[in-house]
Fold this sequence. Notes:
By secondary structure, chain A is an alpha/beta fold. Chain A has helices at about 55-65, 85-90, 115-125, 130-140, 160-170, 190-205, 215-225, 240-245, 250-260, 300-305, and strands spanning about 5-20, 25-40, 45-50, 70-75, 80, 95-100, 175-180, 210-215, 225-230, 235-240, 310-315, 315-320. Chain A has a single domain (about 5-95, about 175-320), classed as Rossmann fold (3-Layer(aba) Sandwich), CATH 3.40.50. In chain A, about 30% of the residues lie in helices and about 25% in strands. In chain A, α3 (about 115-125) runs parallel beside α5, α4 (about 130-140) packs across α5 (about 160-170) and α5 packs parallel to α6. Chain A starts with a strand and ends in a 5-residue tail after the last strand. By secondary structure, chain B is α/β, with parallel strands linked by helices. Chain B folds into two domains: about 10-100 and about 180-340, 3-Layer(aba) Sandwich (Rossmann fold); about 110-180, no CATH class. Helices cover about 30% and strands about 25% of the residues of chain B. Chain B has helices spanning about 55-60, 90-95, 120-130, 135-145, 155, 165-180, 195-215, 225-230, 250-255, 260-265, 330-340, and strands spanning about 10-25, 25-40, 45-50, 70-80, 85, 100-105, 185-190, 215-220, 235-240, 240-250, 320, 325. In chain B, the strands form two sheets. Chain B has an eight-stranded mixed beta sheet, with helices on both faces. Chain B has a four-stranded antiparallel beta sheet with strand order 2-1-4-5, with helices on one face. The longest helix of chain B has 18 residues, at about 195-215. At the A-B interface, α5, α6, α7 and α9 of A face α7, α8, α9 and α10 of B. Bound molecules: adenosine-5'-triphosphate (2 copies) and magnesium ion (MG) (2 copies). One magnesium ion binds next to α1 of chain B.
Amino acid sequence: MSDTKLIEVKDLAKHFEVRAQGAREDKALLKAVDGVSLDICEGEILGIVGESGCGKSTLGKTVLRLQEKTSGQVLYRGEDLFAMGRVDMKEMTKNIQMIFQDPYSSLNPRKKVAQIIGQPLRIHNAGTPAEQITRIDHLMDEVGLNPKFKRRYPHQFSGGQRQRIGIARALALGPEFIVCDEAVSALDVSVQAQILNLLLDLQVRHGFTYMFISHDLAVVEFIATRILVMYLGRVVEIASKDELVNQHVHPYTKALFEAFPVTDPRARKGKKQIVMGDVPSPIHPPTGCHFHPRCPYAEPRCREQYPPLREISPGHSVACWVV
Amino acid sequence: MKDTTKNTNKVLLSMEHLNFSFNIQRGVVKAVRDLSLTIREGETLTLVGESGCGKSVTAHAINQLNPMPPGEVVSGSINFKGRDLLTLPMHEIEALRGTQISMIFQEPMTALNPVFTIGSQIADVFMTHQKISKQEGLKRAVHLLDLVKIPSPETRVHSYPHQLSGGMRQRAMIAMALASPEPGLMIADEPTTALDVTIQAQILDLLNDLKSKVNMSILLITHDMGVVAEMADRVAVMYAGRKVEEADVFSIFEEPRHPYTLGLLNSLPSNQKYKGARRLEAIDGTVPDLLTIGEGCPFCNRCTFALPICSKEFPGETVITEEHSVWCHNHKAVEEIIAK
Ligand SMILES: Nc1ncnc2c1ncn2[C@@H]1O[C@H](COP(=O)(O)OP(=O)(O)OP(=O)(O)O)[C@@H](O)[C@H]1O
Ligand SMILES: Nc1ncnc2c1ncn2[C@@H]1O[C@H](COP(=O)(O)OP(=O)(O)OP(=O)(O)O)[C@@H](O)[C@H]1O
Ligand SMILES: [Mg+2]
Ligand SMILES: [Mg+2]
């Protein structure tokens, strides 16, 4: 890991216009990502955790400019992604890639594996056709797929193997930065472990930088070097892995760790300050701190004003009025 | 020290040597093979295993929700309170469903009717079993919604399923299960898999709370070892249609004897031994195809302990303790590893 900043995200927002439920034709604004700032250094694995709908995937996609932003900036090695023209942006996609959650729907069922993995090579005219074939064999080998199977279709592979196909495709152009969006969530644990090992091996071999999105705290705790916790479009806490796991202070982070089932039946008793209430709607988030209606420590000002993200120790920031 | 006091309660359900297959065009899918399970009164038995190993088919065999055909009970029996469910006429099964055997699913929308309010659906369950008015049924529904901790139950009783959040729907479905006069067995098939962790924690807590209040037994199906650790009294581990190990929850986590159980625990990133490590001990390979599966142990192609006999013959039961059994030719090798 180095101190060179690969990615700088500055006050990034992504809002969607949605039809408000129930109301006639009323448009409402859904602030999926609402003012997120973060840096990712070369060689780092930044884990992003948070519950369904908190904006993890939207953050990942917007950081890669797979969709346009509403406001803010994303710098890649100092260059503003959203200021790039089409040609530069196409060139940029060689460096930045995404691995998706669903190994079933993210692969075209009518294409053979070799075509799927080779697609980025063809789009970017990377090498002669013969070189592309060699490259495909090499990629399959690298992710643990037998190149013999390259003429098969995705449905002829298991879930774990399909995820390997997706990974091979992401590696095709030799990227530096990969967003893994729930890359192992759809897999059984025994297969999930294989894929986590593969992602770590590849990182060591190629010096990749990952943004690793998952709702599974145990997976993130294992793979990440730094962890960011999101709640309704905002960063509530960020710290190095060890600090976040052992010294988290935000009441939502605490709730998340309390709720996450521990794989030790003896740790069952003596637990449980279960946070009550539902995850609120992102269309009409609570005023002030979005977590305050579920927060056992909420004070009057938590209802009125959103707390700023402030550093409480080097590299450890938290957005909470109470801590 | 074992802190589970041995459950000496009466046996509520016993499944004996169930073989369940699906006859499809390409052949016979042996989804469940020679499966025996016992559920005692007041206990939670969890069925754990990878996707496709036969957990749901097993659960559905109990209240006969598997599609028949293509599904077929090849052999076996399921005794519930002294009667074999597999030989009962359909109308008696239907009478048991929702009265003494209730079921909650991963996706509550499959069990809730979208065009009726949840209150009316819960009231209906009361009314099919007792001669009470709709008014009285609704009143009891409010009480149940309160019991499952749905906020402002007097208002929510008039809500339609789509107006509730995922967690609330799951609670409503649990409330419906509780509306039966004597909830003996609740079958919960991945009840929290689609929910956020904070909501999952609430639902699991609720189930535990209810179990002690209503004296019901729970057959809990999950692929999540965290949920197993949180909920189970006893655990049956399944692999490709077979039960490979069964024990009290502590023995499963602390003294597994089957290579698959051991592999499963080693695959967990939360395993304490990975603190600071950068590599997991994964199980190589993939689950075999149930269409072409042979007579040997279904795990043998992925098993690092496999002996020549493993691919030919499924092992018989080895009793480790009264509460703990394993089906493995080479369980001694696993025992040695664990002892280290
Ligand atoms: N294209 C879109 N149009 C409208 N709303 C959207 C769109 N994409 C995402 N959203 C909304 O933005 C919010 C954040 O969604 P996102 O997919 O980023 O969440 P997430 O944290 O990845 O959730 P999950 O864990 O379920 O994948 C959600 O409320 C979602 O419904
Ligand atoms: N209607 C059906 N026709 C043919 N095969 C079926 C049918 N229903 C289930 N199966 C097969 O039976 C096997 C067991 O399925 P089951 O649904 O019990 O798995 P499971 O353990 O519940 O998995 P999951 O964790 O994914 O829910 C699978 O191989 C499945 O493909
Ligand atoms: Mg997502
Ligand atoms: Mg199932």
